[in-house]
Amino acid sequence: MTQKAAALALALGLTSLTAAHAQTKPTVVLVHGAFADSSSWNGVVADLTRDGYPVVAAANPLRGLASDAAAVRTVLNAIPGPVILVGHSYGGAVISAASDGATNVKALVYVAAFAPDAGESIFELSGKFPGSTLSAALDKPVDLPGGVHDLYIQQDKFPAQFAADVPLSQAKLMAVTQRPLTDAAGAEKAVATAWKAIPSWWVYGEADRNIPPAAMKWMAERAHARQVVTVTGASHVVMISHSHEVSKLIEAAAR
Domain spanning 25-254: which superfamily? Predict the structure, then answer.
C-alpha cells in the first residue's frame, strides 16, 4: 500500500469511528401538544444538539389520538437506533400510543403531559382533579365536516392560561400562531399504554393552568416514573420557560 493510500485509509477509518461515536447517543424525538407547534421545543433542541444528541421535532397533526399516534410512529420507524420519546401535554397521550410495541423506544419523557390508561381520554384526566381553567378560556369551537370541531384558546386569555411565565410579547405571538386540537381528539379514549412497559420520566410546572399539577403527580406515580421534576411557578409551557430543566431531564432519561 502506498503512503497516499495508507493516509486515505486512515482518514476513512477515523471518519467512520467519529460517525460511530456520534451515533452512540439516542435520537430524541419531541412531540408537541395542543395549541402549540414544534417551535415550542426550540430551547430544548438547542440544549440537546449542543450536547451531541440527534433530535427530531415531529409534527403532531392534532386530529385524533389514534391517527396522530400513527403519524408519530412513522417517524419512529424511520430511525434506526434507540429513541428517547418526549411528549408535551396532549402529546403525552400520543407518545403513549405511538411507542406501543416500538422496540427502539428506550424511554418516555412526559413534559406537562397526559399519560392516559386504556379507556381514558385527556378530557377526563383534565377534570379528574380541580385546578384546570382551560374550558373557560376556550374560544367558540370552529365547525369542521362530520360534526367535529377545532378548539382554540381565546387569544386575549392565552398568555395567562397557557404561558403565564413567558414574556408577554412572546406569549401573544404564540396565541396568534396556536394550532387547534379537535374535540374528537380530546375525547378519544386511549387504547395503547406504552408507559406500562417503557420507563418514564416526568416534569411539570406547579402553576400549570391547563392540566392540574395534582393530575400529573397522580399519573406519574401511576406510571412508576423513574424521576419526577416539579418546577416552581412554571406554566403549562415549562419546556419554553424552563428549557434547561427539561433538557436536563431528557438527558437523564437518555443515560
Answer: Alpha/Beta hydrolase fold, catalytic domain (3.40.50.1820)
